[in-house]
Amino acid sequence: MAVDCRSLCLLAAFYAAVISMVLSQDQNEFIFNGFSESSNLHLDGLAKIHPAGLLQLTNTSRTEKGHTFYRFPLKFNRSSNSAPSYSFSTCFVFAMVPQLPDHGGHGIAFVISPSMDFSQALGNDYLGLFNNSNNGNSTNHVLAVEFDTIRSPVFDDVDDNHVGIDVNGLKSNVSAPATYFAKEEGRNKTLKLISGDTMQVWIDYDEEEGLLNVTLAPITSLKPDWPLLSISIDLSEIFLDEMYVGFSAATGSSAASDHYILGWSFSKNGKAQSLEISELPQLPKHDGESKRPEGLVVILLVAVVVLVTISGAAYLFWRRKYGEVHEEWEREYGPQRFSYKILYQATRGFKEKQLLGSGGFGKVYRGTLPSSTAQIAVKRISHDSKQGMNQFVAEIVSMGRLRHRNLVQLLGYCRRKGELILVYDYMPNGSLDTFLFSNGRPLLTWSQRYRILRDVASALLYLHEEWEQVVLHRDVKASNVLLDSNLNGRLGDFGLARLHDHGAKPETTNLVGTIGYLAPELTRTGVASTSTDVFAFGAFLLEVACGRRPMEQWRQPEEVFLVEWITKCWKRGAIFYACDPRLEGNFPVEEMELVLKLGLLCSQSQPLARPSMRQVLQYLNGNTSLLDFSPENIENGMATSNNEAFSDFLTSFPSNSHSSTDSILNKGR
Ligand SMILES: *[C@@H]1O[C@H](CO)[C@@H](O)[C@H](O)[C@H]1NC(C)=O
Ligand SMILES: *[C@@H]1O[C@H](CO)[C@@H](O)[C@H](O)[C@H]1NC(C)=O
Ligand SMILES: *[C@@H]1O[C@H](CO)[C@@H](O)[C@H](O)[C@H]1NC(C)=O
Ligand SMILES: *[C@@H]1O[C@H](CO)[C@@H](O)[C@H](O)[C@H]1NC(C)=O
Ligand SMILES: *[C@@H]1O[C@H](CO)[C@@H](O)[C@H](O)[C@H]1NC(C)=O
Ligand SMILES: *[C@@H]1O[C@H](CO)[C@@H](O)[C@H](O)[C@H]1NC(C)=O
Ligand SMILES: *[C@@H]1O[C@H](CO)[C@@H](O)[C@H](O)[C@H]1NC(C)=O
């Protein structure tokens, strides 16, 4: 009897094992309540499986990506007798843990794709799915559901916390801010994707209905009754015979998150099994919230009592050392506010050794945030005026929301008496002018310089046209362009010039900017505009091409002003004579010629004759070629980037012969 029971049990166990093997090999249905090395997954990039069962797609390294796919393809055989069904259902649990509170990127996507090879795809706003040449192409056959934490205006993103359904490209067919329908309250509630909290997603497609639904909820909720997104779509037009299913995640160049998947269930032609929430792996503990053993509590209490007694005395000392200015209006900027103490520790007490440089606005120190290994640059700006400070801080904080790979990311600020402190991403290679003008740093090749010019142009275009508001930089020049570890150009210090405006007495027009980069109308009226930024960018183009500043008084009289000098060389038929001699002629002449002429075009005294940053970038990218114009056109301030205006000009000045001695370019200098 006893023996029989045992063999029965063994038999049952054997069958259970066989059945579970068969189930786990069923290529149309699977469930992972946590992952393991034997999960039949294909991983690439930063993706890895933790021993505790967590699937991590990326860590917080910048501009990286990671993918995970179920190893076996889904099969949709169109040539078989019965037409395949494209219905599917899946649910998964994810978490995005930002590197700094409120400062994470870029996002996660659920993907169905004919290939598992995304080696050519880009990180950042491309989410590890596409690159700029295949984005949007119907030959991709890719369906993705994106959970995107950064607003990319180029892809028409609705905000920096949205879910979207993407077909073959990153411009979502439908998208919405991340919310879920909370049944008990009968209303939609916002979910913050980069809160670090775990959330569950359900994606369902029913072929007969032709509806693809995406539903999101916090891990503690059941599946809401209403999906967040629902579109009618025919997947048979998108899918090929074999499709792989999985996830992609990417980090940004200025903000990054740890991207995790905790569990995943999938079913083709049926409803996906529900995940066992209690069985899912735990997220790693964040820094600073590690639990202390209970025995320590008593000791801590004693310590607290002791501390309280000495803290009275310490307070006065502390206030001198770490005291800050907080005002009521700053409350809403909480997340962007750094405590002075943290910054003090990060920079080892603002030691001279940490000093990176000191510029017009104040001293800049290098630091490492105590809670992470993130390197930062801390800029201390002394500021006497209280007046206008709240408006300025509001602007600075809103600029912290600017995201572009060619901008130096502003992470936050801190305020002390008479002082404003700004925290930026650290740029290991320092500023461009040290490469251009100081000896001892390696010479930048022409291709490096050209790339930096395009980087800065695309950053300025973003500020001028692609963000919610027009942002004027007001101080474009080589020393405000910083180089990251890959020598990409990043524009820094945007908007800081405003600080001087605010500090100024209303009756005086306090001009900010740097001589040689100031457009003549700016010196006259004091009003900055996108055209005054373009003027400064023109001076910057010439500065980089010629390896010298716009105005160098120690030179021969005819060489003092760079614009005049280039125009003179050009008139003599030797425009290349003006370019940086250290390049020793190692550059494609068309590119050098383009940069010099474009620099002149931007430097014209007539604001309307200057191109827009969009046009400038088109020229630099070779999408549009520069119109032919002569040095005389430039001297008359009449060369133009606009076809019609230019031909009008040619007809009204057919001979184009008068060269004015009082060049308009000289005016305002
Ligand atoms: C991320 O993972 C990669 C590869 O495992 C590693 O080289 C890198 O140091 C990690 N970065 C961080 C910030 O942990
Ligand atoms: C698709 O179906 C046809 C007809 O049933 C069959 O001959 C063919 O081998 C199938 N292809 C695949 C890849 O299964
Ligand atoms: C973009 O990705 C596609 C597909 O992986 C690849 O064939 C192509 O070479 C990539 N293009 C660039 C510019 O990286
Ligand atoms: C789409 O990709 C195919 C092949 O990859 C290419 O031939 C075609 O030109 C691309 N179409 C567009 C609009 O880029
Ligand atoms: C999608 O959501 C709609 C309600 O918006 C519902 O009627 C439909 O049945 C859902 N379809 C699937 C496949 O879940
Ligand atoms: C909640 O959001 C869904 C999807 O965005 C929308 O269809 C619905 O009308 C919203 N419901 C309420 C009560 O706001
Ligand atoms: C989704 O968007 C792509 C590109 O914008 C477009 O080609 C496609 O037709 C759209 N599909 C649906 C179902 O709207």
UniProtKB/TrEMBL annotation:
Q: What class of enzyme is it?
A: transferase
Q: Where is the signal peptide?
A: 1-24
Amino acids binding ATP: K379
Q: Which GO terms describe its cellular component?
A: plasma membrane
Q: Which domain of life is it from?
A: Eukaryota
> Which residues span the membrane?
295-318
**Where does the record say this protein resides?**
Cell membrane
The protein's matches in InterPro entries, at most eight in alphabetical order, are given as: ConA-like_dom_sf, Kinase-like_dom_sf, L-type_Lectin-RKs, Lectin_legB_Mn/Ca_BS, Legume_lectin_dom, Prot_kinase_dom, Protein_kinase_ATP_BS, Ser-Thr/Tyr_kinase_cat_dom
| Key words of the record | ATP-binding, Cell membrane, Glycoprotein, Kinase, Lectin, Membrane, Nucleotide-binding, Receptor, Serine/threonine-protein kinase, Signal, Transferase, Transmembrane, Transmembrane helix
Q: Which residues form the Protein kinase domain?
A: 350-626
Alphabetized SMART domains for the sequence: S_TKc (SM00220)
EC number(s) recorded for this UniProt protein: 2.7.11.1
**Catalysed reactions listed for this entry:** L-threonyl-[protein] + ATP = O-phospho-L-threonyl-[protein] + ADP + H(+); L-seryl-[protein] + ATP = O-phospho-L-seryl-[protein] + ADP + H(+)
Recorded topology in the membrane? Single-pass type I membrane protein
Supply one GO molecular-function term. ATP binding
Q: What is its main location?
A: membrane
Family label: In the N-terminal section; belongs to the leguminous lectin family. In the C-terminal section; belongs to the protein kinase superfamily. Ser/Thr protein kinase family.
Q: Which PANTHER family match?
A: PTHR27007
Q: What is this protein called?
A: non-specific serine/threonine protein kinase
